[in-house]
Amino acid sequence: MVAEEIPDLELLRKGGKLQLSRALSLLEQSPAKMLNLLNDCYHAPRAQVVGVTGPPGVGKSTLLAELIKSYRAEGRTVGVIAVDPSSKKSGGALLGDRVRFSTDPEDQGVFVRSMAARERLGGLADLTIAAMVLMRAVFDIVLIETVGVGQSETDVSGVTDTVVFCVQPGSGDSLQFMKAGIAEIPHIALVTKADMGKAAERTKADLRGALSLSSEESSDWAVKVLALSSSDKTGLEGFMTAIDEHYTWLQSEGMLSVQRHQQAKQWLREAVRDLFGRAGLSFLQNTELSLDKAGEISPFELLSQVQQELVISRR
Amino acid sequence: MVAEEIPDLELLRKGGKLQLSRALSLLEQSPAKMLNLLNDCYHAPRAQVVGVTGPPGVGKSTLLAELIKSYRAEGRTVGVIAVDPSSKKSGGALLGDRVRFSTDPEDQGVFVRSMAARERLGGLADLTIAAMVLMRAVFDIVLIETVGVGQSETDVSGVTDTVVFCVQPGSGDSLQFMKAGIAEIPHIALVTKADMGKAAERTKADLRGALSLSSEESSDWAVKVLALSSSDKTGLEGFMTAIDEHYTWLQSEGMLSVQRHQQAKQWLREAVRDLFGRAGLSFLQNTELSLDKAGEISPFELLSQVQQELVISRR
């Protein structure tokens, strides 16, 4: 094998962290070259993708470290994408590598990657979905961590099967949760630092109140409101069970592929909009290059077609 | 005068709240028709535009109510735009009219308008800058309130002369401020609820620490870190003085027009990107339709030209 060769799906799955790491670097350098691998990975998903979001300081890193340890103890492999809220002005990542937990470098079953959120205010990097698709084809679980301040939670729901929203005790009443636009999204709401006793119970109650207000959503999944402290292992077990249950529910209801197809469509729309704006989206509506095929067909494939077909000129 | 007529700048200035209200409604219905008025207002600014941002619950509404009262007592006229973080899923405003303070309906010198943040995650509505330009031509002070969670502060800096970031005591250490991407932007950092004594002092110190870390910015304005409680009138006076001082500084350094021109350019780039995507922006770089003229020329005028000139087609 030549070192510069792009790995295929088989090599990606067998090649361990080295191959995945190379694939992700290639993806950042020249995404166009990765089209075939992305298409193959898109059609061969393996993992449940779990988004872990919540405001800064809520304890997401600690939670992720615990989760990874427990999944590995069960023999499940884990890929992690930590999305870095980059500074808009400087263009760079504000905190550098913000992964604040370490994993065993010898363990081929866990892989962690930081990605910058770039210009998109939503909090998810343009390449996040592509990286997710690669990892989803390789691992048993993919965790995506975002600094969920404000409405970036909405975005993580576009690339994940299961959204976990973390709150710490005493961080606001129901109205505040609603204002932050949070209540509509999570499948699991998790109160961290639950050793804070009464405040944790109060926050759980507030969350339940806020979540029940937004239950017009046409979903039969009843949002789980849980609590967890880093010293409380039963909290962790219950949390992991809830994650599994949501995945089982998605599959049994036939919702998993429906949801993923919707996400693919949404991503494609955003990508086309990014490239050709609203004018591009309207133009496509009147052609047979329909974005609606996304889902069944890889959205990366469709984007590549759009890129080759559309052109901007002067009237 | 026919009721459907679009007011001109003179009528807008003389016509009180009724005319302004009509102009803003027309702006929402058919922005294209408002081009002449927008151009005229753009070239006849009167107000200092002050952005008031900070996380939900920090006390922005109370602060605004106090500010308005004091400005009115000084005889200064005030326009307020309260940007509503709309719910992405439902498309509507989550809390309806979120202005939680009342003003004297008989007073023609104060005007408050809520605007939805629509799809833009940044927190500022597409129409906010247009509404701001209308109000800037009419009032002595324009206040723009945003629920500044996460990086939406970055956005408010694109439409205001002076950015005030509000924090409440005990809301995090320096690192948390940095993580939220806040430290780079404000001209004034204001600790609200300063009756909380020691916690307020601690938060002021944290803010000073966080702000000094980001002082590579090429600006000679030393960020003011102030504290204020709703019961403490000297806090309010000092805050208003700081707002005035920043405006005087902007004018004396010739920075006011420089900053406004940059904002106009940036807005035009965003607007073109929204309409024609990155492909549209690259295309314009190779034509004489340069976006660099924005500032001197009204960005609304330039956008209208771009809209008339560019077209998307199939290769």
Summarize the structure in words.
Two copies of one chain form a homodimer. Chain A has 315 residues and is an alpha/beta fold. Chain A has two domains: 210 residues, P-loop containing nucleotide triphosphate hydrolases (Rossmann fold); 51 residues, no CATH class. In chain A, 44% of the residues lie in helices and 15% in strands. In chain A, strands 3-2-4-1-5-6-7 form a seven-stranded parallel β-sheet, with helices on both faces. In chain A, strand 5, helix 7 and strand 6 form a beta-alpha-beta unit. In chain A, helix 2 runs antiparallel to helix 5 and helix 10 packs parallel to helix 11. Chain A is globular. In chain A, 46% of the residues are buried. About 8% of the residues of chain A have low confidence. At the A-B interface, helix 6, helix 7, helix 10 and strand 8 of A face helix 6, helix 7, helix 10 and strand 8 of B.
Overall geometric form of chain A: globular
Discrete helix count of chain A: 11
In percent, how helical is the residue content of chain A?
40-55%
Question: Which CATH class of the largest domain in chain A applies here?
Answer: Alpha Beta
In spatial order, strands of the major sheet of chain A run: 3-2-4-1-5-6-7
CATH architecture label name of the largest domain in chain A: 3-Layer(aba) Sandwich
- Written as H for each helix and E for each strand, in order along the chain, the element string of chain A is HHHEHEEHEHEHEHEHHHE
- Tell me the strand percentage band of chain A: 5-15%
